[in-house]
Protein backbone atom coordinates (compact mmCIF):
# COMPACT_ATOMS: atom_id res chain seq x y z
CA UNK A 1 0.00 0.00 0.00
CA UNK A 2 2.91 2.32 0.70
CA UNK A 3 4.26 1.81 -2.82
CA UNK A 4 1.17 3.38 -4.42
CA UNK A 5 0.55 5.98 -1.73
CA UNK A 6 -2.67 4.67 -0.22
CA UNK A 7 -1.40 3.39 3.15
CA UNK A 8 -3.23 6.22 4.92
CA UNK A 9 -6.62 5.44 3.38
CA UNK A 10 -9.41 4.09 5.54
CA UNK A 11 -9.93 0.41 4.81
CA UNK A 12 -12.87 -1.78 5.84
CA UNK A 13 -10.35 -4.42 6.94
CA UNK A 14 -6.91 -4.59 8.54
CA UNK A 15 -3.94 -4.48 6.17
CA UNK A 16 -2.33 -7.11 8.39
CA UNK A 17 -5.12 -9.61 7.70
CA UNK A 18 -4.53 -12.50 5.34
CA UNK A 19 -6.79 -12.41 2.28
CA UNK A 20 -9.26 -15.29 2.61
CA UNK A 21 -12.69 -16.20 1.29
CA UNK A 22 -14.16 -14.55 4.41
CA UNK A 23 -12.85 -11.06 3.64
CA UNK A 24 -12.48 -11.34 -0.15
CA UNK A 25 -15.86 -9.73 -0.84
CA UNK A 26 -15.03 -6.72 1.33
CA UNK A 27 -11.69 -6.31 -0.44
CA UNK A 28 -13.35 -6.59 -3.85
CA UNK A 29 -16.00 -4.01 -2.97
CA UNK A 30 -13.34 -1.62 -1.70
CA UNK A 31 -11.35 -1.90 -4.94
CA UNK A 32 -14.40 -1.40 -7.18
CA UNK A 33 -15.75 1.50 -5.13
CA UNK A 34 -12.38 3.26 -5.27
CA UNK A 35 -11.30 2.23 -8.78
CA UNK A 36 -10.77 5.72 -10.21
CA UNK A 37 -8.92 6.83 -7.09
CA UNK A 38 -6.71 3.74 -7.25
CA UNK A 39 -5.88 4.36 -10.90
CA UNK A 40 -4.86 7.90 -10.05
CA UNK A 41 -2.54 6.55 -7.35
CA UNK A 42 -0.89 4.37 -9.98
CA UNK A 43 -0.68 7.11 -12.62
CA UNK A 44 2.97 8.10 -12.12
CA UNK A 45 4.02 4.46 -11.98
CA UNK A 46 2.10 3.83 -15.20
CA UNK A 47 3.82 6.73 -16.96
CA UNK A 48 7.26 5.52 -15.86
CA UNK A 49 6.52 1.95 -16.95
CA UNK A 50 5.37 3.17 -20.38
CA UNK A 51 8.65 5.04 -20.90
CA UNK A 52 10.62 1.92 -19.92
CA UNK A 53 8.73 -0.49 -22.17
CA UNK A 54 8.56 1.96 -25.07
CA UNK A 55 12.36 2.00 -25.10
CA UNK A 56 13.00 -1.73 -24.86
CA UNK A 57 10.20 -2.67 -27.29
CA UNK A 58 11.19 -0.17 -29.97
CA UNK A 59 11.42 -2.01 -33.30
CA UNK A 60 10.12 -5.30 -31.82
CA UNK A 61 7.28 -7.18 -33.50
CA UNK A 62 7.22 -10.14 -31.13
CA UNK A 63 8.81 -10.80 -27.75
CA UNK A 64 9.09 -13.78 -25.40
CA UNK A 65 8.62 -13.52 -21.66
CA UNK A 66 10.05 -16.30 -19.48
CA UNK A 67 8.79 -17.35 -16.06
CA UNK A 68 8.69 -20.38 -13.77
CA UNK A 69 4.87 -20.35 -13.85
CA UNK A 70 2.13 -20.68 -13.07
CA UNK A 71 -0.88 -18.98 -14.60
CA UNK A 72 1.18 -16.95 -17.05
CA UNK A 73 -0.69 -13.86 -15.90
CA UNK A 74 2.39 -11.66 -16.13
CA UNK A 75 2.66 -12.21 -19.87
CA UNK A 76 -1.11 -11.98 -20.37
CA UNK A 77 -1.50 -8.71 -18.49
CA UNK A 78 1.66 -7.18 -19.96
CA UNK A 79 0.37 -7.79 -23.48
CA UNK A 80 -2.93 -6.13 -22.60
CA UNK A 81 -1.23 -3.08 -21.10
CA UNK A 82 1.30 -2.66 -23.92
CA UNK A 83 -1.15 -3.14 -26.77
CA UNK A 84 -4.46 -1.81 -25.49
CA UNK A 85 -3.53 0.74 -22.82
CA UNK A 86 -0.33 2.19 -24.32
CA UNK A 87 -1.06 1.49 -27.99
CA UNK A 88 2.32 -0.16 -28.66
CA UNK A 89 1.92 -2.86 -31.29
CA UNK A 90 3.89 -5.94 -30.26
CA UNK A 91 3.08 -9.63 -29.95
CA UNK A 92 3.80 -11.54 -26.73
CA UNK A 93 4.45 -15.22 -26.08
CA UNK A 94 4.89 -16.46 -22.53
CA UNK A 95 7.20 -19.41 -21.88
CA UNK A 96 6.55 -21.21 -18.58
CA UNK A 97 8.27 -24.09 -16.84
CA UNK A 98 4.90 -25.31 -15.60
CA UNK A 99 1.30 -24.18 -15.75
CA UNK A 100 -1.17 -24.00 -12.89
CA UNK A 101 -1.44 -27.56 -11.62
CA UNK A 102 -4.57 -29.65 -11.21
CA UNK A 103 -4.38 -29.04 -7.47
CA UNK A 104 -5.13 -25.30 -7.69
CA UNK A 105 -8.61 -23.84 -7.48
CA UNK A 106 -7.96 -21.80 -10.66
CA UNK A 107 -6.22 -24.61 -12.53
CA UNK A 108 -8.10 -23.75 -15.75
CA UNK A 109 -7.24 -20.03 -15.68
CA UNK A 110 -4.84 -20.20 -18.64
CA UNK A 111 -6.35 -22.97 -20.77
CA UNK A 112 -7.44 -20.74 -23.65
CA UNK A 113 -4.02 -19.07 -23.77
CA UNK A 114 -2.34 -22.48 -23.87
CA UNK A 115 -4.60 -23.57 -26.71
CA UNK A 116 -3.85 -20.55 -28.91
CA UNK A 117 -0.11 -20.81 -28.07
CA UNK A 118 0.06 -17.44 -26.32
CA UNK A 119 1.54 -19.49 -23.50
CA UNK A 120 4.04 -22.30 -24.09
CA UNK A 121 4.83 -24.80 -21.32
CA UNK A 122 7.97 -26.91 -20.94
CA UNK A 123 7.49 -29.25 -17.96
CA UNK A 124 3.76 -29.84 -17.50
CA UNK A 125 0.25 -28.61 -18.20
CA UNK A 126 -3.20 -30.15 -18.58
CA UNK A 127 -2.16 -31.24 -22.10
CA UNK A 128 1.40 -32.52 -21.56
CA UNK A 129 2.99 -34.66 -18.86
CA UNK A 130 -0.28 -34.99 -17.00
CA UNK A 131 1.30 -37.13 -14.28
CA UNK A 132 3.42 -34.09 -13.31
CA UNK A 133 0.40 -31.81 -13.71
CA UNK A 134 -1.54 -33.99 -11.26
CA UNK A 135 1.33 -34.46 -8.78
CA UNK A 136 2.51 -30.84 -8.43
CA UNK A 137 1.11 -29.55 -5.11
CA UNK A 138 1.17 -25.79 -4.40
CA UNK A 139 -0.31 -26.48 -0.96
CA UNK A 140 2.88 -28.41 -0.13
CA UNK A 141 5.00 -25.41 -1.18
CA UNK A 142 6.03 -26.97 -4.49
CA UNK A 143 5.64 -23.62 -6.26
CA UNK A 144 7.84 -21.87 -3.71
CA UNK A 145 10.59 -24.48 -3.76
CA UNK A 146 10.61 -24.53 -7.56
CA UNK A 147 10.87 -20.74 -7.76
CA UNK A 148 13.76 -20.71 -5.29
CA UNK A 149 15.76 -22.85 -7.71
CA UNK A 150 15.67 -20.01 -10.23
CA UNK A 151 15.45 -16.89 -8.05
CA UNK A 152 17.87 -14.04 -8.65
CA UNK A 153 20.39 -13.38 -5.86
CA UNK A 154 19.65 -9.66 -6.22
CA UNK A 155 16.84 -7.75 -4.45
CA UNK A 156 13.39 -8.12 -6.03
CA UNK A 157 11.99 -5.44 -8.32
CA UNK A 158 9.26 -3.44 -6.58
CA UNK A 159 8.00 -0.63 -8.81
CA UNK A 160 8.55 1.93 -11.55
CA UNK A 161 8.89 5.59 -10.60
CA UNK A 162 9.17 8.84 -12.54
CA UNK A 163 12.54 10.57 -12.40
CA UNK A 164 12.43 13.91 -14.17
CA UNK A 165 11.56 13.19 -17.79
CA UNK A 166 12.59 9.56 -17.40
CA UNK A 167 12.02 6.60 -15.16
CA UNK A 168 13.60 4.87 -12.21
CA UNK A 169 13.49 1.21 -11.20
CA UNK A 170 12.91 0.67 -7.49
CA UNK A 171 14.10 -2.55 -5.84
CA UNK A 172 13.77 -4.04 -2.37
CA UNK A 173 16.49 -3.15 0.11
CA UNK A 174 17.87 -6.67 0.35
CA UNK A 175 17.66 -10.09 -1.28
CA UNK A 176 16.29 -12.89 0.84
CA UNK A 177 18.13 -16.21 0.78
CA UNK A 178 21.07 -14.82 -1.23
CA UNK A 179 23.56 -17.31 0.22
CA UNK A 180 21.30 -20.28 -0.52
CA UNK A 181 20.41 -19.07 -4.02
CA UNK A 182 24.05 -18.53 -5.01
CA UNK A 183 24.96 -21.98 -3.71
CA UNK A 184 22.06 -23.62 -5.56
CA UNK A 185 22.83 -21.84 -8.81
CA UNK A 186 26.51 -22.72 -8.58
CA UNK A 187 25.47 -26.36 -8.34
CA UNK A 188 23.16 -25.90 -11.33
CA UNK A 189 25.84 -24.28 -13.50
CA UNK A 190 28.46 -26.86 -12.42
CA UNK A 191 26.12 -29.66 -13.49
CA UNK A 192 25.31 -27.95 -16.81
CA UNK A 193 28.97 -27.36 -17.61
CA UNK A 194 29.86 -30.96 -16.83
CA UNK A 195 26.92 -32.30 -18.83
CA UNK A 196 27.77 -30.17 -21.88
CA UNK A 197 31.45 -31.13 -21.65
CA UNK A 198 30.69 -34.85 -21.53
CA UNK A 199 28.24 -34.75 -24.43
CA UNK A 200 29.99 -32.11 -26.51
CA UNK A 201 30.19 -34.46 -29.50
CA UNK A 202 26.55 -35.50 -29.18
CA UNK A 203 24.42 -32.35 -29.49
CA UNK A 204 21.21 -34.38 -29.61
CA UNK A 205 21.79 -35.14 -25.91
CA UNK A 206 20.80 -31.55 -25.22
CA UNK A 207 17.24 -32.30 -26.35
CA UNK A 208 16.02 -32.82 -22.79
CA UNK A 209 12.29 -33.32 -22.40
CA UNK A 210 10.24 -31.32 -19.93
CA UNK A 211 9.33 -34.53 -18.13
CA UNK A 212 12.98 -35.46 -17.62
CA UNK A 213 13.85 -31.93 -16.51
CA UNK A 214 11.09 -31.89 -13.89
CA UNK A 215 11.54 -35.46 -12.57
CA UNK A 216 14.51 -34.72 -10.22
CA UNK A 217 12.48 -31.97 -8.59
CA UNK A 218 9.54 -34.28 -7.99
CA UNK A 219 11.84 -36.96 -6.59
CA UNK A 220 13.18 -34.37 -4.14
CA UNK A 221 9.61 -33.47 -3.15
CA UNK A 222 8.89 -37.12 -2.40
CA UNK A 223 11.95 -37.22 -0.14
CA UNK A 224 11.48 -33.81 1.45
CA UNK A 225 12.94 -34.84 4.81
CA UNK A 226 16.17 -35.83 3.09
CA UNK A 227 16.48 -32.89 0.70
CA UNK A 228 14.03 -30.02 1.06
CA UNK A 229 13.96 -29.60 4.83
CA UNK A 230 17.75 -29.39 4.93
CA UNK A 231 18.21 -27.05 1.97
CA UNK A 232 15.35 -24.62 2.59
CA UNK A 233 14.85 -24.75 6.37
CA UNK A 234 16.17 -21.21 6.88
CA UNK A 235 14.76 -19.63 3.70
CA UNK A 236 12.31 -16.72 3.78
CA UNK A 237 9.56 -16.16 1.24
CA UNK A 238 6.89 -13.55 0.52
CA UNK A 239 4.17 -15.85 -0.77
CA UNK A 240 1.45 -13.18 -0.75
CA UNK A 241 3.60 -10.42 -2.33
CA UNK A 242 2.55 -8.10 0.52
CA UNK A 243 6.09 -7.47 1.69
CA UNK A 244 5.73 -9.79 4.70
CA UNK A 245 8.58 -12.29 4.62
CA UNK A 246 8.01 -15.55 6.47
CA UNK A 247 10.12 -18.65 7.04
CA UNK A 248 9.04 -21.43 4.70
CA UNK A 249 9.41 -24.17 7.25
Account of the 3D structure:
- The chain is α/β, with parallel strands linked by helices.
- The chain is 41% helix and 15% strand.
- The chain has ten helices and seven strands.
- The protein has helices at 24-33, 35-41, 43-56, 73-85, 111-115, 130-135, 142-148, 178-198, 210-222, 228-232; strands at residues 62-67, 91-98, 119-124, 157-163, 166-171, 236-237, 246-247.
- The protein has a three-stranded parallel sheet.
- Strand 4 (157-163) and strand 5 form a beta hairpin.
- The longest helix is centred in the C-terminal third of the chain and has 21 residues, at 178-198.
- The chain is globular.
- The two termini are 27 Å apart.
- The mean pLDDT is 88.
Multimer state: single chain
The general outline is globular
Q: Specify the structural class.
A: alpha/beta
Helix content range: 40-55%
Number of E-state strands: 7
Largest sheet: 3 strands, parallel
Q: Termini separation (Å)?
A: 27 Å
Percentage of β-strand residues:
5-15%
Biggest sheet: strands side by side, in what order? Answer: 1-2-3
Mean of residue pLDDT values = 88
In brief:
Helix content is 41%, strand content 15%.
Descriptive keywords:
249 residues, alpha/beta, two-stranded antiparallel sheet, 10 helices
Note the topology.
Elements: H1 24-33, H2 35-41, H3 43-56, E1 62-67, H4 73-85, E2 91-98, H5 111-115, E3 119-124, H6 130-135, H7 142-148, E4 157-163, E5 166-171, H8 178-198, H9 210-222, H10 228-232, E6 236-237, E7 246-247
Parallel strand pairs: 1-2, 2-3
Antiparallel strand pairs: 4-5, 6-7
Amino acid sequence: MNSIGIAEWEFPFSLNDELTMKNANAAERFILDNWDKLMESYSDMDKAAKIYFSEILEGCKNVITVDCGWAGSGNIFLEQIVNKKWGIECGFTGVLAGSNSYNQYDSDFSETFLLDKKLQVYCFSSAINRDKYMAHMPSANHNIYFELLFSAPQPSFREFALNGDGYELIFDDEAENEMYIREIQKGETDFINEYVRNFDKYPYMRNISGSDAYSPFMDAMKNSKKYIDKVFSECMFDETTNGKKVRIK
